[in-house]
Amino acid sequence: MQKRDDLFVRNEREAQLVDRAAELAARFAKRAPLHDRDGSFPFENFKDLKDSGYVKLTVPREYGGDEISLYELLLIQEQLGRGDGSTALSIGWHMGLVLHYRTIRSWPEELFRSFCLEVVEKGTLLNHFSTERSSGSPSRGGIPQTTAVRTDGGWLISGRKTFSTLSPVLDTFLVSASMAESGQIGEFLVRSSDRIRIEETWNTLGMRATGSHDVILENAFVPDDALIRSYAAGQKPKESGDASAWLLHIPACYLGIAHAARDFAVSFAKQYHPASLPSPIADLPTVQQQIGLLESELLVARHLMYAIADRWDTDPAGRLKLIPELGLVKYVATNHAISIVDKAMRIVGGASLSRSLPLERMYRDVRAGLHNPPMDENVIRNLALRALAEME
């Protein structure tokens, strides 16, 4: 994997974090074609992530973690994306959620402390399973059909969750469920048991190795102290001061994929010298034009992402005002990533369609970004509403 100076790495600490992520990414890149072909889950990648201490980087320092910033999280997640998009996106949910809950402290503190210690000591991973086939995406207001029914000492949870990324490797996860008695929606910390099973439904165009299968719960018991919080159906819980900035792990991943495609195409252009030309195709004005265009798209997206992350880190009081910009980062990054990979394939030409090269996998993987939250139309609408409100 090509390494070069990165103007977004600002100090020695960030350089060390990026170097650690780059070493992991290089391993993942070698394994990515096989897991993409088979749609298999890369268990060995997650062993490497645990063994390296990567999974505890966003854990609070008081509980044994490194408490890295949002900016630092994006640096390392982007780096992982250069190696394997599926692994980067998958671990990003764990990394981002831990940062999220570290920031808003919505868990009962003793439960959060004990969970963080598990992450540090055992490498325990986390994701939040909320999407369902019948109710749709929670980001669009879907109310879970999964139910939580009161029982002695806790709750019995039943339902089916879709898009359950990381499911093959999780023994602890969050579940959103409708609480039968109150009609509210509860978020529960669930542990694996014989009442929980995985149905391997994930067989997709891109991001084939995320293990985003269906998770089925059949009267799975969770104790009283495993209820994280509850809120009225149709209302998002208040998360003061956070603005869900942790979701920027998504654009970081897709920009990582785009960056890898850019590197491959530029390297190819400098080396490919057809007999019909006096020099490599990198000397052709048409190829230079394509390289310049994809480079401009990559720089615009990265500047935007890291500038907003830095503002979020340094101005906690102003975080909620950044909600439109945080959505804009995802919108720009994912759409630019698609365009960058497309241009990279045009530079390489027909060979880019070969499964022996990484570009066709990257092209399929970046398409998935359109379906991660927030949705493009919601981002644009939020920007429009803010502009209209400013003129009142």
Q: What does this 3D model show about the protein?
A:
The protein is of the alpha+beta class. The chain folds into three domains: 12-122, Orthogonal Bundle (Butyryl-Coa Dehydrogenase, subunit A, domain 1), CATH 1.10.540.10; 128-231, Butyryl-CoA Dehydrogenase, subunit A, domain 2 (Beta Barrel), CATH 2.40.110; 245-390, Butyryl-CoA Dehydrogenase, subunit A, domain 3 (Up-down Bundle). It is 48% helix and 14% strand. Strands 1, 2, 3, 4, 5, 6, 7 and 8 form an eight-stranded mixed sheet that branches. Helix 6 (249-271) packs antiparallel against helix 7 and helix 6 packs parallel to helix 8 (323-348). Its EC number is 1.-.-.-. It comes from Brevibacillus brevis (Bacillus brevis).
What is the structure about, briefly put?
By secondary structure, the chain is α+β, with helices and mostly antiparallel strands. It has three domains: 12-122, Acyl-CoA dehydrogenase/oxidase, N-terminal domain (Butyryl-Coa Dehydrogenase, subunit A, domain 1, Orthogonal Bundle), CATH 1.10.540; 128-231, Butyryl-CoA Dehydrogenase, subunit A, domain 2 (Beta Barrel), CATH 2.40.110.10; 245-390, Butyryl-CoA Dehydrogenase, subunit A, domain 3 (Up-down Bundle), CATH 1.20.140. It has helices at 12-38, 43-51, 70-83, 85-104, 109-122, 249-271, 285-314, 323-348, 359-367, 376-390; strands at 128-129, 147-151, 154-164, 172-179, 185-191, 196-199, 213-223, 227-231.
